[in-house]
Every structure is written in C-alpha cells, then in structure tokens.
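If you are new to this repository, start here. Below is one unmodified record pulled from the training split, so you can see the exact layout before writing a loader.
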Amino acid sequence: MTTSDVREIRRPAHVAMLTISLALVPAFAFWVGRQERLGKPALIPNSIWKNKAFTSICLMVLLAFGVMQTMELFVSLFFQQVQRLSALETSIRLLPAIVMGLVLEVTTGLFVHRISVLYLVVISSLLSAGSPLLMAVINKNWPYWYDAFFAQFLMYFSVDVLFTVGSFVISDVFPPQTQALAGAIFNVMNQFGTSLGLAVMGVIASAVTKQSDIADKASPEALEAGYRATFWAAMAWMLVTCCIGVFGLRKIGKDDTVRHAEMGVEIFCLPLSRHSDISVTQWSPVAQKALHVTFDTAKARENRASKLYLTAQPLRKSPSSPQTLPPPRIPQTTPLTMEYMRALSSNKADLQKKYLTKDSKPYDHITIGAIILSKTNSPDPEPRLLLLKRAVHDKLHPNVFEIPVASMDDTDLDVQEVLKRVVSEKMGLRVGWVVGALKPLVYTTERILAEADGMGGGDEGVAGVGETAKESCIQFTFICESRAGEKEVEVDQTEYDMAVSLDVFEIDDYYIVERTREVLEEAFELLGEGLGA
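And here is the target side for that same chain:
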C-alpha cells in the first residue's frame, strides 16, 4: 500500500519491512565485498565507490533528479490546486522548462570541455536551486511573469549538465571493461533519485498540510502551506548538491596524466580539465626543472574546444619571468618528439599500421615500458630512476633489475591505459605526469612453438611444433612521475623482491641486461640535458 500518511509507519508490518530493508543494505555491501576479495563476480563491486569523482556525481544526480521530479509534480499541483488554473493553462505555463531543457540537452555537450567541470556543475546547481526558491516565496496572486516563469526557466539546469558531465566522468575515470557497469549504476542513481525525491517530498507536503491551522485540509490555503514546505526542502537538496560538487569534484582532472613535447605542444586527451589557470606551479618539481612549462593563454582561448596548449623549454638557466622566455629549444639529440608522445593516444592497431619492420610487416608484439622518476626530499635532486629486482626464484631472469614493461593487447584502449596499468600492478603507484618519451626500442625474441599456435611442420618457411620461432617486438618507453603524495613503492611480490633508486653513475652497480641499460642511459641523457647537467 502506498500512502503519504506518516502515521502509517507505526504499523507493525511497515516497521518490519523497513527494518529488513535497512538491514539488507549493509548485508549486500558485505556480500559483494566478499565476492570481490575472492575474485568472484560481484554485481556492484565496492571498489567502484572509491573513485571520489564518480561517487560525488552519483550522489549529485540522485539529489538533482529528485528535485527535478518534485518540481515538475508540485509546480503543476500549485498551478491547479492553489491558483485554480485549468490543465491547459498549467501545461502552457510549464512550456518554458521543456524548451530550456531541450536547449540545454543540445548545448551542454558543446561547452562542457571549455569550462572547468567544478564551475560548470556548481553554477548549474546554484541556478537550479533558484527554481524551488522562487516557488517557495511566490505569491499566488502574482502574475506568471513575476516569478513562476523564471522558476520554470531554471528548473532543468542542474540535471542536464550533471547527466552530460557524468557521462564524461565515467568514460574518463574507468577503463572500457568497467564503463558499462559504471554507466548502469549512474542511470540507476537518477531513477532512484526520482523515486526517493517524490516519496520524501510527498511526505513533507502531506505532513505540513495536516499540521496547518486551517480546518479544511483540502483548501488551497492548506495545500499551499504543504507545497511551500516542499519547495524549501527541494532548495535545501540543491544546496547539498552544490556542496557535494565543491568537495567531490574540486580535484577532478588535476591528477590526470599530462603529456607534453615540443613548442606549441598539444596536451592530448586532457579530460574535463581545460582550466585557464594551469600554471607551472601545478607541475611536479622534477618536471618543472626538466622542461620549464608556461601556459599559453592566447592559444588556449583560440582553441579551447579540444586542446590545451603549453610552451615547453629545457631549463638551462632560470628565466627572469615566463614572459621573457626565449623560443623553446628542445635538444636535437633527445628523442622527445611529438610523434612518440602521440603514441599515448594510439591503440595497438594504430601502432602496428604506423610502425613496421624492415620487411614492411607489423611487429608481432608491442610493449610499453615505464621509467619512474624517484621522489626525494632534496631541494635540488639529481634525477634518479626506479628499478625493480626480479625475484631470486624467477626461472628466466633471476635477480635482474628492470623497468616495468607490459605487452599491449588488442583490447587495450590506448598506450596510456597500458602505462597506467603496468605501473599500478608492478609498483603500486599511479602515473601522475608523463615527462618524456624515448625512441622506440626494436628487438627480437624467440619462442618455442606449441600445438596451440596452430602451426605444423612440413611447409617451407613455417616452423613446426617444438621448433623456435623468432618474433619481432617494438617497445615504447615513457619517463613518468607518480602522482603527488605517493612515495612508497609496493612491488608485486610474486615477480619481484624489491625496488631500488639509482642515478646515472650507479648503472654499473646493478645486474641490468643490455637492452634495459640502453633505455636507462637514454633516459638519463634526456633528463640530464633538460636539467642542465
């Protein structure tokens, strides 16, 4: 039975159902947490809520959709029950909200990348909070154009903006295999918000109407009191939505991977963070010294629709001010080129088409390597790099020191995804900055063929089962820094014993294979020139 009478909650059946429902919420969270820990399928993994941006957007959508549905229902009731307008007159008065909603649906996607997500969400929520506020203070005898028109005009600002921003957040913070789940949760939250909003606001309106001093509870005056209370509550919900946005989205985009290369460098795929106030102070100390960065506001204004422009220069001497910087001069000997940085946005198929072997064939394997800059407390540190030591029980390369490397699969969205994954899995760190890109390393590996390879002997030039086949490989290596506040390395104990930090003079002190040694020397050369060594 559905009722707005708050006294009905005292009935034993309702108390029992409410208690069971509340108890099932933590029980469900415990169950999916157990499933996740055991590696079993979980309907809604608890880990998905650890992403603050996603959780904040979901809460904001829940509240905003609750307010929107409340406004649609109770504004209509106000026109009909309090102002005594006909259904046709009420429908006409609701048209501005519909027209504005359509305009917002079309235009929000056009400027969502031009404005800070935080500003966009908070401002739209504040504007939507004005809609219930105007209805809460309305005089039923006022003309429509004095108050109610503007309330209708502001009604849909928040929900339309939040829905668009939420879609971008999901595509940005989750890998492709999780985006469908996150999108489903996001849509469930707006549906749940609709139900929750109508239920709570209906109870508020009914309770206030029944507690009014007016004898006839069905009179326009008694109903008006309940409706006003509902509008005040709706405004409070929108203010809570603003607060969630301020604290939950204030850092969105600031910790995302930043990629830069040459003069007029384009920051590719910098999601949801095209801020006009990005400055050198937001770059980590080593990155600032290796490549002095200033924000080019003129170019940003010219093309804020898709790219963020920075000017990069190796810092040999501290310039007097960013405005007096000479033209950027990336050392010609370094492989820091736009071509290799663009690989961050490429998938495996793109790289296999662009980079071919000497025989004009695609490489059999594409690997992604990460050289992580070690963080020190020294105010003027020499560049130090992190290496991982293979476990002593490793069958192929025991006690060898190496950088994190992973093969790129067909299912990987792009190189950036592989780079983040390999650093996270093998070192327990999150990539915060991509400082540079090294020249791709080409090498050959050997593999003993098995029956699963689908090859059989007998054909000329085709290796058979048990024979050795050579496979071509190309490795793209990037110099990275972990995110701010992350200093401890947590190595994968199944593969490695420890992590070490070394400088250019300590390479010979460690057991490093020749291929890795070449990569490290090239990285130190790049960082050394950038730091004015």
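Two things worth knowing about this chain: The first strand starts at residue 265 and ends at 267. The chain has three domains: 51-248, 265-318+325-337, 340-452+464-530.
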